[in-house]
Predict the structure.
Amino acid sequence: MSSQQDLKPVSPALPPTDGSRGLSGSEVQQRLAQYGSKAARSGQARHLSAFYSIRRNRMNYRDQFRIKPGNSVKLDKMDAAFKDKHEDQASALVETEKYTHRLRELQYLLYAEDKRSLLIILQAMDAGGKDGTINHVLGSMNPQGAKVYGFKVPSAEEAAHDFLWRIHLAAPHRGQVAIFNRSHYEDVLVSRVHSLVPKKVWSKRYDLINDFEKSLVDNGTHILKFYLHISKDEQLRRFKQRIDDPTRHWKISESDYTEREYWDDYTKAFEDALSSCSTEHAPWFVIPGDHKWFRNLAVSQIVVETLESLKMEFPQPTVDIKEIKARYHEAEEDAGAKNGKVKNIKKGKK
Ligand code: ATP
Ligand code: MG
């Protein structure tokens, strides 16, 4: 059952902000006042106040990590171990939790509004952290309004179609969030590195991808694309962790090691994809990924800031709330009267 009632927010969503800056103290108070004094006294108010104070003081990763259209990306110039002002996981965790909490509220609003959708694309080298990002950041969303699609080697049916066919089928409908674990970018990454198709085929795909993404955007989909940037050393450390931990043995595949030998080819292919396909309407973000906790913070902030900037609003009620309230009170009185009778009967009174 796809029911809106089941998609309860953790707490009511605030009226949207402009998304480009944090709010001042008085703006926070104003927003809290819109909730009424009851909410202002509650933990809800404390949570929101903390959330907006974090937004006031934060670095803006949405600007910092976005690839500007037309820029030529050089991944070895980008520090995969960057962690901003944070010394360790503990200092980033509080902020990340505020963002993931807010993400759930905003997803509820997106679902309720039912006007547009969000597509999040994750790409990385093997062990780059796609699964971890889905688990720790995007996992805070209600599964009824969010779907994850993993794109593997195309099936016979998929391969018999154009490369965007299976992708289009998974595109989110209005009100929904879709998360792609790998995507159509594999068709300019693995396909190029391993010459699965000739150059004259894959080289045309950048334009095809840009046109395809534009058509989704024109149809109300917001697209965020994250390249989780890890260093070659960090990849090896993660492979070792998998070997040392029996509960992760199932994750090890031979291809992890064979693909590692193509590191430089993949880097070049990623750089071209990021440079050619970061557009105003569907930006790529290069997220420093050696510190998993920093990656989670950056991704959660960017997704939340983007959703805030959409200025979403709850739809107008389809019923007359005053009338419904009056009917509720009548029903309450009726129920009260009936309960009173039952009590009297039990006590033997007429
Ligand atoms: P994990 O991180 O858990 O290993 P994964 O995303 O790497 O997850 P795998 O099943 O290990 O999942 O790998 C999927 C494989 O499918 C990758 O090697 C990827 O390159 C390949 N693949 C995805 N899309 C295509 C495509 N269009 N053409 C060819 N290969 C593809
Ligand atoms: Mg794999």
Summary: Confidence is low (pLDDT under 50) at residues 1-41.
